[in-house]
Structure formats: structure tokens, C-alpha cells
Write a structure and sequence with these properties.
The chain is 41% helix and 19% strand. A hairpin with a 4-residue loop joins strand 1 and strand 2. It is globular, with a radius of gyration of 28 Å.
Length: 725
């Protein structure tokens, strides 16, 4: 009987995980014969094929980027909309980047539908790709979504209370340059922005970020979209990730909106594998339905405010979107905590599940610690056998089952200590804590507690088993959906996310296993632990990479103190050494500007940065000091594209990059002024279109900047002056 209970509960967990991973409520792709006013993923993919053409990498400033932009303009002309190109020199930086990126970009702006005199709803995607891949989904999926949305709006002859516009930005991959240039132009002030992105080419369309005060936005999303994929936790996590999208500068400028992304098959992200033939049409259909329905709803909203209270929310298997104002979370969590305490105090002694309240109270943290420790041990074993840091990159199934069985073994070890009241006291207490300190996370503790707390009070005199099963299933659905959803985003290299979410899913259901003792319990633990160990060995023996998921390697051309080098971001292997044609250092190198990796020397390059004037200090705007520096890159005409990355930390330690970046035109050069918030110190950068002009002076600017001399020619250069290819 004990074996039946243990493995029946295990089968329930496996079934719910499979439902969360593969049974989400997702739309079927609409074919080319669908209604003209509806979004069709098949039509969108066909339009994308015409715009991408030969599917080559098209980073900002490259010839292929210009070809993609011209094909995009042709496609827009075929849809009967007015489009204009905005070309500008742009700079943008985040304090956490430790750098400002500058480059010349060409955005495409489209007036889609007419409306009143109000600010338009702005649909947005970026037209550039990384240099490493063709960008068919990042952000070809965004371009396809906008093109098909525009077609559907025009076919329906839609006219809302507000106009709808579309913006195809350039230079997003280089540092959000096109979005910043559009904002600096100031000709359009959007009512709301719908940005469409991708992190991979498979999976559902996640709403992973909104503007602040998002309760009206989430209500509108719930009312307008039929297939949900969102959680307030995604926004909490995104704050701490080293990623940005074109929505970032809009949010910083005070606008609001939605950020959608296809998240799945990260092996294709920013690689040559990002091709149109591998795009998940179901995810593209979900992208398009959200963009089309929300743009219509926003355009018909009139003058209603889009900023209100903050909301906490999560979707249930893509079918239901429970939500509430964040201000309600902490009083409801406190009420649940009080209800569980009350249920514990009223519970008769002969109905108690455990006679050891202290041990029962310690069970959840012990389970979490054991699950995390087992994860590190099994992943470390697989990594040691495979010789790679991410042994499950290409074939995650073996390590996934290994981690799952290890968590199950730890749960069985902890089950005899489990008590219903102590388990739910932890859940409700964490609901209170997260409601105060991380509101986006609170629904994962609060929503199951809203079911469990009243059931525990109602069953103080008996019948607790069904109540525990019902509330436990609610927790399992919510936590296992999070468990299945985070793996495509982060992979099993970050195995702690997998083990922690699995452990939290099991905490409320372990009281159901507390009575199990004897051989059934011992045999189940032994089987689970042995299988977990064997599967970890299998994961280590499996090929960590294959043609569908090859090893990632970025090679950066670097200049430092007059010397040139190649920089790779992965530990050196024989293949990498052959790729760069030199011996790579075995010890990682790091700089303040966010660049780090393994170096290989290269001959002194011909690209030269020559200093025009000496540093100039002058008064500007009262007592504020402004530092002016100008430089000129010779040999840049041989590069396919020009970009500068300016490590502000090298010029002033601890300086924060401001939000305002003004561009001053010049007859010969494009000049960008980057304003630093700290003491209003500015840095002037000059990027030439040709090598004529200033006469070089061989003098140092400042000790704060690492300027050296090239052995071949003696020209002074900065280590960040390099062609983009």
C-alpha cells in the first residue's frame, strides 16, 4: 500500500509536469486561407521570407542590413501604408553596462491606421540581427508579426479612437540605438508600446515585461487575448538579468507598454541556426494574436489611463489569468497565515499527522537544502564526466530526469517529518514575505494558500486528506508550470532553479506521504537515488553538443594599449585555438567594460585611433565641469559597419550613465555627446566618415584612459576602437 501511495503521487507529479510542458493552451497556426482581418502565422512567415531574402546576417550598418531595410520598405508599400526612414547617429548606455554604445542607424516608421488627435499606439520590432546569425526569429518574428498585423488592420479598414503606428528599429543588438534615436527625435509620443522580441525560435509567446502601474495593462491583456503566457514573476526576474530590449529606453522615458518574446530552443538564439524554417508557427500565431488584439483594444481605449496600481498575476496552463492588485497581496497573505495558525490550534491531538512539531517545522528548509545540494552534486558529476560546464546543453532529458528523481528522493527522506500545518505555515509566511519584498513572486505562494487556508480550517475535525490533496494539486500545478517554463529560458546549467521550484511544488503534498514507513519507503528512496545517479552518469556520457545544438563561441577583436588580440568568451579548446589561429590563454581575463574571456595575440592592426585635441576643461551650465575629448578612427572605411563602445568606467570610476544623449551634427564627422549624471561630466566622441581632417598628436589624454602606442606606425589608439566584424 505504501508503494502504491508513493508512486501514485509521483505519477501525478509527472503528469502535471508534462501537462505544463506540453499541454499549454496555445493557438493553432492560421493558414493562408484564413479571414483577411485575422492574423495568420503562415502569411506572416511568407512575408518574412520576402523581407529576409537570402537569410544572411544583417547587423546595423552592414550592406545586408540596408538590403533588408529596402525589402521591408517594399513590403510596406505593398500593404498601402506610408513609411519613412529615420537615419541618425545614436548613443545609448546603461549604468550596469559600464559602457556607452554609439553607431549610425536607420529606423523605419509607419503610420498604419488613422484615429483621433491622441497619441498613437506603437507596434515595435527591430530589423537588425547579430553578426553571428541571420536573425530569422530575433527579430524576424517581430518583423513578421508587425507586417501581418498591419495587413490585418488594413484589411479590416480599422479606425479607432487613436491611430496605430509601427516602428522597425535598427541597432537594437548593438545597444538599443534605434529606439534611443526615435525617442530623441521626439516627433511621436506613443500612448502605449507593444514590443515583439524573441529568445530562441520555439515555444509560446511570453508577456515578460510591462510598464509600471500595470494593473490596467494586465486587465486589458486578460480581456483581449485568449491564449495566456505571463507572470508577474517574469518582470521580477528580468530586472536582474543582463538583457534589455527596445522597450527599455521607452520605459525609462516614462512610457508604458508590453514586451513579448518567443522563448524556447535557446540553442538557436544569436547563432546561424536562427533560420525561418525552424520558427514555431504556433508561437508566431500567439505573438500575432496578442499584437493585433491589443493594438485594437488600445486604439479603442480613448483617454483611459494605462497606469494604475501594480498587479500580481500568473497564468494557469495558458487558459486562465488570476490576478489582483499588489496591495491586496500582503493582507490576504496575512489572513491565510492567521487561518493556518487557527487551524493548527483547533486541530485535535489525535488528528495530528506528526508528533514532532519542531522537526515538521524544519522539513521545508531541509528539503530545499537537500534538493539544491543534490542538484549541485549530480550536475557536477555530469560536468566532470563530459568535461564541459553544461553537459545537458544538447540533450537535457537525462539530466532533467536525474534532477527530478534526486528531488523526489530528498522529498521521501523528508516526508516522515512533514506536517500539514507546518508546511502551509511556511507557504503562507513566504507569501507574506514576498508580498512585501518581491511582489511579483508572491502569487506562487499566495494563490495556493488561498485554497489551502480555508480548507484547513474547515477540516479541523476530520477529512483533512482530501483537503490536503486538493490544495496540494493547486500548488503542484502552479509550481510545476514554473519549473517547466524556466528551463527553456535558462537551461539546466542553472539547475538550482529546477530543483528549488520542484521542491516548493512538493512541500504541500508531503504530509500525504508522512504515514508511509517500512520497506516500501526505503526501497523507493533507494530506487530514486540510484536512478538519479545513473542518469547523471548517462548525461555526462552523452554528447554535450551536436549539429542542432552546437557549442557557442563568440570571438571579439580587441585592441589594448597598442596591441591587438582575439577574445573568446568560452574556455579554450583545440577547436577554438584552431579557429583563432593562435594560442589562447588558459586563464580568463576581465575588464570593467563588461568584456571578459580568453585572449590570443594578433598582429598590430591597421585600424588607428588618432587623438585630435588635448583634453579641454571648461565651464558649462554653472559650476559644472565638462570634459571634452575627440578621436578619429583611421582605416574604418575597410569595416562593413562602424560602432564604438565607450567604457565610461575607464574615464571616471563609478560614474553613472545618464539618460540623455544629445547628437550634434558636423560637416565631416558625426558627434555624440554622452552626459554623465555624476557632476554633469560629459564625454565627446567623434566618428569620422573618412580619414581626412585632424592632425594627430602623440600625447596622452589622461591616466584614466589606457592609451598606448602601436609598434607599427606609432599611432595612439584606444582598446575599444575596432571594426564591428
Amino acid at each position: 500500500m505504501g508503494l502504491l501511495r508513493i508512486w501514485s503521487l509521483a505519477a501525478l507529479c509527472i503528469g502535471l509536469w508534462l501537462l505544463a510542458a506540453y499541454g499549454l493552451h496555445r493557438p493553432a497556426p492560421l493558414g493562408p486561407g484564413g479571414p483577411a482581418s485575422a492574423f495568420s502565422a503562415v502569411r506572416a512567415s511568407a512575408a518574412l521570407g520576402k523581407v529576409l531574402g537570402p537569410e544572411k546576417p544583417h547587423p546595423a550598418g552592414s550592406a545586408e542590413n540596408e538590403a533588408v531595410r529596402l525589402r521591408l520598405l517594399e513590403a510596406l508599400a505593398g500593404l498601402g501604408v506610408d513609411a519613412r526612414t529615420q537615419t541618425a547617429m545614436s548613443c545609448f548606455g546603461e549604468a550596469r553596462w559600464h559602457a556607452v554604445v554609439c553607431g549610425t542607424v536607420s529606423n523605419v516608421f509607419v503610420q498604419v491606421t488613422p484615429g483621433g488627435d491622441g497619441d498613437p499606439v506603437l507596434l515595435m520590432a527591430h530589423l537588425d540581427s547579430v553578426a553571428a546569425g541571420p536573425g530569422a526569429c530575433d527579430d524576424g518574428c517581430g518583423m513578421a508579426t508587425l507586417l501581418e498585423t498591419i495587413r490585418a488592420l488594413k484589411a479590416a479598414d480599422f479606425k479607432g479612437a487613436r491611430p496605430i503606428a509601427a516602428l522597425f528599429t535598427d541597432g537594437e543588438e548593438d545597444g538599443l540605438l534605434g529606439a534611443q534615436a526615435f525617442l530623441r527625435d521626439g516627433a511621436v509620443h506613443p500612448y502605449a508600446v507593444i514590443n515583439v522580441e524573441a529568445r530562441g525560435d520555439q515555444g509560446p509567446s511570453y508577456l515578460f515585461q510591462t510598464g509600471k502601474g500595470n494593473a490596467p495593462l494586465i486587465d486589458l491583456y486578460a480581456d483581449s487575448v485568449t491564449h495566456f503566457m505571463t507572470s508577474s514573476l517574469y518582470g521580477e526576474i528580468y530586472k536582474y538579468m543582463p538583457n534589455d530590449t527596445d522597450l527599455t529606453p521607452f520605459l525609462k522615458a516614462g512610457y508604458t507598454g508590453y514586451n513579448f518574446a518567443l522563448i524556447g530552443n535557446i540553442a538557436a538564439y544569436h547563432t546561424p541556426l536562427d533560420v525561418r524554417g525552424s520558427i514555431d508557427l504556433s508561437g508566431l500565431q500567439q505573438h500575432g494574436e496578442a499584437a493585433l488584439n491589443l493594438s485594437r483594444a488600445l486604439a479603442n481605449r480613448g483617454d483611459a489611463a494605462l497606469v494604475g496600481r501594480e498587479a500580481v498575476y500568473l497564468d494557469i496552463l495558458g487558459r486562465w489569468l488570476p490576478r489582483m492588485p499588489a496591495g491586496w497581496a500582503w493582507p490576504l497573505a496575512l489572513a491565510c497565515f492567521a487561518a493556518v495558525l487557527l487551524a493548527g490550534s483547533l486541530r485535535r491531538r489525535n488528528f495530528r499527522v506528526t508528533e514532532r512539531p519542531v522537526a515538521a517545522f524544519l522539513m521545508p528548509p531541509l528539503l530545499l537544502a537537500g534538493a539544491v545540494g543534490a542538484g549541485f552534486g549530480l550536475h557536477g558529476l555530469a560536468a566532470w564526466i563530459s568535461g564541459t560546464a553544461d553537459p545537458s546543453f544538447a540533450h537535457p532529458v537525462w539530466l532533467r530526469w536525474s534532477l527530478a528523481l534526486a528531488v523526489w528522493a530528498m522529498a521521501l527522506l523528508a516526508a516522515p517529518l512533514a506536517g500539514a500545518i507546518s508546511a502551509w505555515l511556511w507557504m503562507t509566511a513566504l507569501a507574506v514575505a514576498t508580498a512585501f519584498f518581491a511582489p511579483g513572486l508572491s502569487p506562487y505562494f499566495l494563490f495556493p494558500s488561498l485554497i489551502a487556508a480555508p480548507l484547513l480550517v474547515m477540516t479541523v475535525r476530520g477529512g483533512r486528506g482530501p483537503a490536503l490533496l486538493l490544495s496540494g494539486v493547486a500548488a503542484l500545478v502552479i509550481w510545476l508550470q514554473l519549473n517547466a517554463g524556466t528551463e527553456p529560458l535558462m537551461g539546466l546549467k542553472v539547475h538550482a532553479i529546477f530543483t528549488v521550484t520542484a521542491a516548493f511544488a512538493l512541500v504541500p503534498v508531503l504530509p500525504l506521504l508522512a504515514p508511509v514507513r517500512g520497506p516500501a519507503w526505503v526501497i523507493s528512496i533507494a530506487l530514486s537515488a540510484t536512478a538519479a545517479l545513473g542518469l547523471a552518469v548517462t548525461a555526462g556520457l552523452a554528447a554535450p553538443y551536436d549539429t542542432a545544438a552546437p557549442q557557442r563561441m563568440n570571438i571579439t577583436y580587441l585592441e589594448n594599449r597598442g596591441k591587438a588580440a582575439w577574445l573568446t568568451d568560452a574556455p579554450p579548446t583545440a577547436e577554438m585555438r584552431a579557429a583563432v589561429g593562435a594560442v589562447l590563454a588558459r586563464r580568463a581575463w576581465d575588464r570593467d567594460a563588461g568584456l571578459g574571456g580568453y585572449l590570443a595575440p594578433r598582429a598590430c592592426p591597421t585600424l588607428q585611433c588618432r587623438v585630435c585635441p588635448d583634453p579641454l576643461y571648461r565651464r558649462s551650465g554653472g559650476a559644472a565641469l565638462r570634459r571634452q575629448r575627440q578621436g578619429r578612427w583611421h582605416g574604418a572605411e575597410r569595416a562593413r559597419a562602424r560602432r564604438a563602445v565607450i567604457p565610461v568606467g575607464q574615464w571616471r570610476d563609478g560614474a553613472r550613465i545618464g539618460r540623455r544623449h544629445a547628437v550634434v551634427p558636423h560637416t565631416d564627422c558625426a558627434t555624440a555627446q554622452v552626459t554623465l549624471e555624476r557632476q554633469l561630466q560629459g564625454v565627446w566622441l567623434r566618428l569620422p566618415r573618412r580619414s581626412a581632417g585632424c592632425r594627430p598628436r602623440r600625447r596622452r589624454w589622461s591616466r584614466r584612459g589606457p592609451i598606448g602606442r602601436c609598434r607599427q606606425g606609432g599611432a595612439m589608439r584606444r582598446w575599444w576602437a575596432a571594426p564591428s566584424d
